[in-house]
UniProtKB/TrEMBL annotation:
Gene3D superfamilies hit by this protein: Medium-chain alcohol dehydrogenases, catalytic domain
Organism: Tannerella forsythia (strain ATCC 43037 / JCM 10827 / CCUG 21028 A / KCTC 5666 / FDC 338) (Bacteroides forsythus)
Family annotation (PANTHER family): QUINONE OXIDOREDUCTASE-LIKE PROTEIN 2 (PTHR43677:SF4), SHORT-CHAIN DEHYDROGENASE/REDUCTASE (PTHR43677)
Signal peptide range: none
SUPFAM superfamilies: GroES-like, NAD(P)-binding Rossmann-fold domains
Pfam families recorded: ADH_N
Name of the protein described by the UniProt record: GroES-like protein
Stretches assigned to the Alcohol dehydrogenase-like N-terminal domain: 14-40
Any one Gene Ontology molecular-function term assigned to this protein's record: oxidoreductase activity
CDD domains: MDR (cd05188)
Length: 298
């Protein structure tokens, strides 16, 4: 293909989540058959067969993928393609984090960054738990999220300093203490929350806001704050727990809970056809509450 002037393009497949149909299987494959609907199994650190795990693909938009049997899991018949395409990463991560928290009845729980897909999935997972669910921080691009607070059974919502006096109008944590904190962006929120952790608490995190040095945004955790962090962990007997994705059992539990009506995945919008620009704008630039899905029609 000849490219010139303003019409130069580059091919860059995207996508770590998908739903698809098995078209062919190898002679040793036993659990899957042609015609099965499948999604990715992102088990980590190991797959069920003992191999190193992780995200099954970062190129789902290629549409034809050559994957191993243990990189996939069947989709329940009751789950739509739109939900299945957006399910596995957030569900598997959320269920793993909640499992590690080992929540007790009446625990005061704090979830940061409510507009994060991981945090939204944790909220859904915790609806069946007897815990007090509080929120710390949300994107300024999701003002309409406030109307869901009572519907989702959230106790209180607090704002970090960089969002106070904004259009949300809520206050900071003041003297609140929490037993478990779920945080997808530890470099963004950790130092603000050091004074709000209970003794014998757990701080479970799964990622960073500033994932690359070239990414500039809100102020993140300064490198010289490590001594303060270590001190707080010691003084409060706090467990600082990292989490990367989840195990096969976490995804299976999420799928079972979905089938039983105890868990759902928030879908913001679905795009198709020539709506590619709108899809990417909604995914990364505009207000959204949940996953943004692109659906192929052919």
């Amino acid at each position: 293909m000849a490219l010139s002037g303003n019409q130069k393009y580059f091919y860059s497949p995207v996508g770590s989540e998908f739903v698809g149909q098995v078209v062919k299987v190898g002679s040793e494959v036993r659990s899957l058959h042609p015609g099965d609907r499948v999604m990715s199994d992102n088990s980590y650190p190991f797959k069920p067969d003992g191999s190193i795990g992780g995200v099954s693909t970062n190129f789902a938009s290629q549409r034809f993928l050559l994957l191993l049997e243990h990189q996939l899991i069947k989709v329940p018949d009751t789950m739509s393609d739109e939900v299945a395409a957006a399910f596995s990463l957030s569900a598997q991560t959320a269920y793993s984090m909640v499992r590690k928290a080992d929540l007790k009845d009446g625990d005061n729980v704090l979830i940061t960054a409510l507009t994060s897909n991981t945090s939204l999935a944790i909220v859904e997972r915790l609806k069946s738990c007897n815990a007090n669910i509080n929120i710390y921080g949300m994107s300024s691009k999701a003002i309409s999220l406030r109307k869901y607070i009572k519907e989702w059974g959230l106790k209180d919502i607090y704002l970090p300093p960089f969002l106070q006096d904004s259009q949300f109008g809520e206050n900071d944590c003041i003297d609140k203490k929490f037993d478990v904190i779920f945080d997808p962006f530890i470099d963004l929120y950790f130092t603000d929350l050091l004074n709000h952790i209970n003794f014998n608490s757990k701080y479970i995190f799964c990622g960073f806001y500033q994932q690359h040095p070239s990414y500039k945004g809100m102020k993140v955790l300064p490198r010289n704050s490590l001594s303060t962090m270590y001190g707080s962990c010691i003084i409060h007997n706090m467990s600082l727990i990292g989490n990367c994705l989840g195990g096969r059992e976490d995804l299976e539990k999420a799928l079972s809970d979905f089938s039983d009506g105890r868990f759902c995945m928030n879908i913001d919008s679905v795009y198709t056809g020539n709506q590619l620009v709108e899809f990417f704008q909604k995914s990364f630039l505009k207000e959204r509450i949940g996953k943004v899905v692109y659906k192929y029609m052919d």
